[in-house]
Amino acid sequence: MSETSSTHARIADIVQGNDVVLFMKGTPLFPQCGFSSRAIAILERLGVAYATFDVLQDMEIRAGIKDFSEWPTIPQLYVKGEFVGGSDIMMEMYEAGELAQLVTDAGVARA
Fold it and tell me: 62: number of CA atoms within 13 Å, CB side?
């Protein structure tokens, strides 16, 4: 198995293994960029259970997630295995009520 395919398999396992997962820089308590901080704040306001993955702790995942999603930036949000977007898209969807509807429709557990 190539390094790329094994990295993609690891990412797929993380995405499939969590109803809501945010690939971010840092941790929820100590986000390492403003975009990751904003993404965590949105998830907290939604009140859903979520997992995070700190891409700063794993350079293979940090590089591979951009290929996996075909999205150039981090953070990246996945809900029920589907890529949603980065913090700007999360904010737009949150403000429009679409993100709350998405997690409700997906049957995501409350925190």
Answer: 9
Residue type, 35: F
Question: Mean pLDDT for the chain?
Answer: 95
Report the domain count for the chain.
Answer: 1
Angle between helices 87-95 and 98-105 (to 10 degrees): 90
Cα gap 76→89, rounded to integer Å: 10
Q: Residue 9: inside a domain, yes or no? A: yes
Which residues in the chain belong to E strands, given as ranges?
Answer: 20-24, 51-54, 76-79, 82-85
- 111 belongs to a structural domain: no
In three-state secondary structure terms, 98 is helix
Q: Check whether 23 has a pLDDT greater than 80.
A: yes
